[in-house]
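**Backbone shape codes:**
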Amino acid sequence: MKFTAKQISEILNGEVYGNPNEEVSKLSKIEEGEKGSLTFLSNPKYNSWLYTTDASVVIIDQKFQPEKEVSSTMIRVEDPYMAFTKLLEFYNNIQLHKSGVEEPSFIHSSATCGEEIYLGAFSYISENAKIGNHVKIYPNVFIGDNVVIGDHTTIFAGAKIYSETEIGNNCTIHSGCIIGSDGFGFAPDKNGGYNKIPQIGNVIIEDFVDIGSGTTIDRATLGSTIIRFGVKLDNQIHVAHNVEIGAHTVIAAQTGIAGSTKIGSECKIGGQVGIVGHITIGNKVRIQAQSGIGKSIPDGEIVQGSPAMPYNDFNKSYVHFRNLPKLCSRLDDLEKKIGDNQNKK
């Protein structure tokens, strides 16, 4: 799909300098610009590329004054970075705009679907499922019995949504996600084996939640595993049964959260963090990558390490740790001197 510089300027409320009919059909970095591409300049470090780029159209700051002749058509805007972000969103919406029901796919007769949905080939919608308006379900997605999905939610190819799961409005669930699988519940028997404990709860995902590829969220044993409003989960995260994650918390890849732990709102959790079960993490807590969390954390704490400790304490301890070889050498020298002195006596 092609757009002219004039059409783009109207979307961005900008002003064209150059050929208003210059056409673009793709986006690019300014240093990788080529004929037919659109790019932007906001960082002064890249100013020199404005004079050499082959991009057809460049978005620039309305206050920027070129020092040389610019061959590209320019669009002046108040904030080039935000303007380009807006175009990325616009472009993404066009790329992902799909509608209709592809064949073969299956919708149970008791299921209900809203207006203008997209259902990709080989997808399966089970008994009594309720699908909202403008929902996009990509190929090879499984939707279990009694699942509820709100309006404007997108579920990408290969995701599996188990029975009783509730997903809100404007959510994005990426490929390979498993939502509502059984929690890790087993009781030991007298013979050294394990008996499975039925997991009869569900998963509730509130509005504006994003879940990355390959992430697994287990259903509750009883009650619900809950992902609150605006939570952002990276790829390959495991959320165990009966966990609750507070609103606007963000969690990076490969983090594991054990059962029944409660995480507050607006927390930031780095990658490869391990969190034990049955603890509470307060609001606005920051956990550095690869930390091991073995106890509850109050509001506003910043922790690091395994086991985790306050961030400043970790940094002080790490300085001593790095100096251990020198300290050991000094201790050896001191012991040798003491030994020599004792021998002389």
Q: What stands out?
A: The CA atoms of residues 188 and 194 lie 4 Å apart.
